[in-house]
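G., before I forget:
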Amino acid sequence: TQLLEQSPQFLSIQEGENLTVYCNSSSVFSSLQWYRQEPGEGPVLLVTVVTGGEVKKLKRLTFQFGDARKDSSLHITAAQPGDTGLYLCAAETSGSRLTFGEGTQLTVNP
Amino acid sequence: DAGVIQSPRHEVTEMGQEVTLRCKPISGHNSLFWYRQTMMRGLELLIYFNNNVPIDDSGMPEDRFSAKMPNASFSTLKIQPSEPRDSAVYFCASSFKASGKRWSDTQYFGPGTRLTVL
């Protein structure tokens, strides 16, 4: 059983559509991070959410941390082909150890 | 500034051979992480160092894997002997761990080494 469950695993949409990706757990975390990974590259940090109920916006991306700090969502408005990539959520489980979800592979078709 | 540097970018070897992956972290960072990424298991932490000292190696699959960090600017991950199931992309990441910080530090990933063991 994965500590962090991401859904959906795969998502293929048309340019201009909206989408939401979910990251769920039964554990409580002090913080949660979202990364994006493009083919042939390492993951790049998008945001860190710390406070329960926190909402952070990064241009067309909106990140929310659940009130109980067990789950998070990533919403993309008017998706563009440049948003294509693997989206990973990650949580610190002990010390500096990060545990990653399995990821959501997003494809935005022009 | 240069990011995390990994070499080689691609490695193809035969089962039983020794493989050494190399990493140069970002200057000034005091934590270094080795990850493995596969389709089946996703991104898994193998080991991490803080101030050149191994802190958590519980993710190292077995004795065939070893990692060293002789100084703040260099780390190696060695597999001996290699097996086909070791085929994966291996990432190195570094971060600056500030004492007393409540949330996770930003980890900066290298481009990865794609390892294929035949």
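Chain B is about 0% helix and 55% strand. The first strand of chain B starts at residue 5 and ends at 7.

More on Monday.
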